[in-house]
Amino acid sequence: MANQFSPSTHARFSYCLVPFRDATPHPIILRFGEDIPQLPPGPVQTTLFVNPSPGSYLYYLELLDISVGNHRLGFHPDMFKTRPDGSVLAVFEAYYGSRKLQRTTNFQGLELCYKNPANYHDFAAITFHFNGADYSVDGEYGHFFDPVKGFFCVGIVRGTTATVLGAWHQQNKRIIHDGGIHGLQFADEQCINDVL
After folding, report:
1. Which class for 25: exposed (0-12), middle (13-18), buried (19 or more C-beta within 10 A)?
2. Distance between CA atoms of 15 and 2, rounded to whole angstroms?
3. Integer CA distances (angstroms), 62 to 5, 25, 32, 77, 192, in order
4. pTM to 2 decimal places
5. Spatial distance between the Cα atoms of 131 and 115, rounded to a whole number of angstroms
6. What are the DSSP E strand ranges found in 85-196?
7. Can you tell me the distance from the alpha carbon of 193 to that of 196, in angstroms, rounded to the nearest whole number?
8. What are the distances in angstroms from CA 142 to CA 38, 82, 123, 127?
9. Are 89 and 79 in contact, with CB atoms under 8 Å apart?
């Protein structure tokens, strides 16, 4: 759709996802062209699409490395051009193991799940180091929580061919897909304030 309406939208569209843990569901507002709000003051990150091809509906970014908490994993950049080997999950496993949290059963494809002790809030943040930009995910938005059953899971699924930056990791971020620069721009934002 962004390509079809590019003369009037300047090949730009944007959204901002309200955190999923809110009790009240909120609509997702998809904005185009001039309707996209100015990015908030502060650090705006920009990374370019890799090989944007005409008519493609997918957006590929060049991922160089990942940090879990304050630990940069030091992957070789070619690592993300092939297939992941689970190293990211191993760092999370070590992180939560050092905090003596008890593992629980997997949940809907999520492998690393733990019982959530009362008042525990030390969830590991994740930073995706893209070419030209660092995409930081607060620990709260890098995990799936089930408060009723009292567990949480690391919000990363082991893949065999590609890594997907899912909607879970995009909470409280202004995301702008800009076909004019063939790139992605993003910044932290309180998405609950994104109203019509």
Report:
1. exposed
2. 13
3. 26, 33, 25, 9, 30
4. 0.81
5. 36
6. 113-115, 126-130, 133-137, 143-146, 151-154, 173-178, 183-188
7. 9
8. 26, 23, 8, 10
9. no
Structure tokens at 5: 């309406």
Q: Which two tokens stand for residue 140?
A: 């709260």
Write out the DSSP string of 25-78: --PPPPEEGGGSPPPPSSPPEEEEBSS--TT-----B-EEEEEETTEE----GG
Average pLDDT over the chain reads 83
Question: How many Å apart are CA 47 and CA 64, to the nearest integer?
Answer: 11
Q: How far apart are CA 125 and CA 140, in angstroms?
A: 8
For the record, the structure tokens of 59 come out as: 């957006």
CB atoms closer than 10 angstroms to residue 9: 20
pLDDT band at 83 (very low <50, low <70, confident <90, very high): very low
- Evaluate whether 129 touches 137 at the Cβ level (below 8 Å): no
**Do 151 and 89 meet the contact criterion of CB atoms below 8 Å apart?**
no
State pLDDT tens for residues 114-148.
Answer: 999 999 999 999 999 999 999 999 998 989 888 88
